[in-house]
UniProtKB/TrEMBL annotation:
<protein>
    <submittedName>
        <fullName>Aminotransferase class V-fold PLP-dependent enzyme</fullName>
    </submittedName>
</protein>
<feature type="domain" description="Aminotransferase class V">
    <location>
        <begin position="22"/>
        <end position="371"/>
    </location>
</feature>
<dbReference type="InterPro" id="IPR015424">
    <property type="entry name" value="PyrdxlP-dep_Trfase"/>
</dbReference>
<keyword id="KW-0032">Aminotransferase</keyword>
<dbReference type="InterPro" id="IPR000192">
    <property type="entry name" value="Aminotrans_V_dom"/>
</dbReference>
<dbReference type="InterPro" id="IPR015421">
    <property type="entry name" value="PyrdxlP-dep_Trfase_major"/>
</dbReference>
<keyword id="KW-0663">Pyridoxal phosphate</keyword>
<keyword id="KW-0808">Transferase</keyword>
<dbReference type="InterPro" id="IPR015422">
    <property type="entry name" value="PyrdxlP-dep_Trfase_small"/>
</dbReference>
<dbReference type="Pfam" id="PF00266">
    <property type="entry name" value="Aminotran_5"/>
</dbReference>
<dbReference type="GO" id="GO:0008483">
    <property type="term" value="F:transaminase activity"/>
</dbReference>
């Protein structure tokens, strides 16, 4: 558990903690003071100096190196994108796929991943969906019966947004390595809250936005493309993708060689304000440690699970530790409960299976106790007066 003093200083960084019970980091992060300060400094530089662009560009490279270290990658394997969807679409269009090849996904996984691959059906690529219960996680065994010689890609979320499952990337990565299958991971819900070692997990491509566990506003994504996958070709090209960008800015058709590193997938100018914010965010996350954050949210999750059991409220996702992390979906009817939580100044998300509680480094045991107290009141009122309108 993060120490009480450390937790107090983390909460100081997140002023939202003084205003409401924020249990919605799986939706978007509230901003920390250090991230806000980084954005303000960037805006001040742009405002007062119209942008010291070479300085900004140098900082982008420093941030790239920090992001790479964060995932145990090398800077040459990191490209900056707009969001998770862009990264996944880049992957879907870069992997060499022919008519008759197949891609395997999990049924009900995030639509932003599913659509990127379903879009390839017009090229004759088969998309196979593997059924999986919300209470279970995917392992290599889940995928085995669905793959064959024409399987080129397995793709899935590391942590699911709708049930909080933490899929077993280690066994899936091993399977992919043995069978020569690309493993493409949507890490949107796991970055910053679960340590991620792209090499140990044998991930080929990993895409994530940065507005949840990486603590910055929407509009910046991180894309990891393993070195050596030279056959992955960018569907779009800009000068920044080229191996020999022309110094005179005149494109020459006879030299279309693209870069070998992940920068071949980075097109034009990047989200400079967010990149400044990301550097500050990574420093904040590393001052706590991703493993510590993971332990912290898991301990809060343990407490939440036992409280829900006592109240006889089903939690949609898996219960075993290691199979869940910071996302817990409570089987409470959204139509009745979403407004009730809002009226009690608790920020959560409506989800397909109920109400989603998502935990972050700044949440405390007291936060869980407050949530439970409010649920108890809601349940009491509900037994007395059953309609949603009467629940407060
Ligand atoms: C698993 C997962 N993937 C992707 C996204 C979002 O995609 P994007 O970053 O493209 O907006 C979310 C939620 O916002 C998510 O939970």
């Amino acid at each position: 558990m993060i120490s009480t003093e450390k937790l107090a200083s983390i909460r100081e960084q997140f002023p939202v903690t003084k205003r409401q019970l924020y249990l919605d980091s799986g939706h978007q992060t509230p901003l920390s003071s250090s991230v806000r300060d980084a954005l303000v400094s960037f805006l001040t530089e742009g405002y007062e100096m119209a942008g010291p662009k070479p300085v900004w560009v140098r900082r982008v490279e420093e941030t790239r190196a920090n992001v790479a270290r964060f995932f145990n990658a090398s800077p040459s394997e990191i490209a900056f994108t707009k969001n998770t969807s862009e990264g996944l679409n880049i992957a879907a269009n870069a992997v060499p796929l022919e008519a008759g090849d197949n891609v395997v996904l999990i049924e009900g996984d995030h639509p932003n991943n599913a659509y990127a691959w379903l879009n390839l059906k017009s090229k004759g690529v088969e998309v196979r969906f593997v059924p999986l219960k919300d209470s279970e996680i995917a392992t290599a065994e889940t995928f085995e019966p669905f793959i064959d010689k024409r399987t080129k890609v397995i793709t899935l979320s590391h942590v699911t947004f709708h049930a909080g499952q933490v899929h077993d990337l280690a066994s899936i990565g091993k399977l992919c390595k043995e069978r020569g299958i690309y493993l493409v991971v949507d890490a949107m819900q796991s970055v910053g809250v679960i340590p991620l070692d792209v090499k140990a997990l044998n991930i080929s491509v990993m895409a994530a936005g940065t507005h949840k566990g990486l603590l910055v506003p929407q509009g910046l994504g991180v894309l990891y493309v393993a070195d050596g996958l030279d056959e992955l070709r960018p569907a779009y090209l800009a000068m920044s993708s080229m191996l020999n960008p022309p110094a005179d800015y005149i494109a020459r058709p006879e030299d279309m060689a693209v870069r070998k590193d992940a920068l071949r997938f980075e097109f034009g100018n990047v989200n400079l304000p967010d990149l400044h914010a990301l550097d500050a965010a990574i420093k904040l996350i590393e001052s706590v440690g991703v493993s510590e954050i993971q332990k912290h949210v898991n301990e809060l999750g343990d407490r939440l699970l036992s409280e829900m059991e006592a109240l006889d409220i089903t939690v949609v996702g898996p219960r075993a530790s290691g199979q869940r992390n910071h996302i817990y979906v409570l089987e409470l009817p959204v139509a009745e409960w979403a407004d009730f939580f809002a009226r009690n100044n608790i920020r959560v998300s409506p989800e397909r299976g109920g109400i989603r509680v998502s935990l972050a480094m700044f949440n405390t045991v007291e936060d869980i106790e407050r949530l439970v107290e409010v649920i108890r009141i809601g349940l009491l009122n509900k037994t007395r007066r059953p309609t949603a309108a009467q629940m407060d």
